[in-house]
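Notes from hallway chat w/ T.B., transcribed later so I don't forget. T.B. wanted the structure written out for a chain they're using in a teaching module, and asked if we could keep both sequence and structure tokens in one place. Agreed to drop them here.
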Amino acid sequence: MNKFKFTFLVIIFCACSDRNDFLLSEYQKSFSGMIGSKIDIEELNSIQEYNFKVLVLLNTQCASCVLTAKRWSESVNHSIFNNKDIIFLTYGPPNEYFQTNFNESMKSFKDLNHIHYPSEEFIYKNNLELYNLDVFLLNQSDEILLIGDPTKDPLLRKLYKNF
């Protein structure tokens, strides 16, 4: 999201009396091409403990993805994740540095949901080229409700509370 849209959302969030509903509406408009789209990943069908899923995409060739995994391990007990399945989908060729750090970061998860793809094929299949290192909140039908990482964005944390 560009800086103008983000600044606009922050101003509106602070000024509006019915902030959460308005913020969610404006947020969804900015991702209108993706919100409601279905993520088609067969392995997601078997993960259905809760009504909502948080899908975290991590590339094995991405150094910052190691930091993302560490941030998630520190945030896993946050109340916004209580009624949501968290699924880490890693993709790319094997990388010892990434795998070692990912495994260390994931120790804080009691029930780790992890899917790995050796290539980026699912990215193209699901039209996620612009969102290949992002986080998605999905409903029971695996349709996208929100896009963005609530572990580093306080506005997204507020939106996650609505679900």
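Follow-up for T.B.: The helical segments are 3-15, 19-30, 63-75, 96-105, 121-125, 154-160. Might be a good example for the class.
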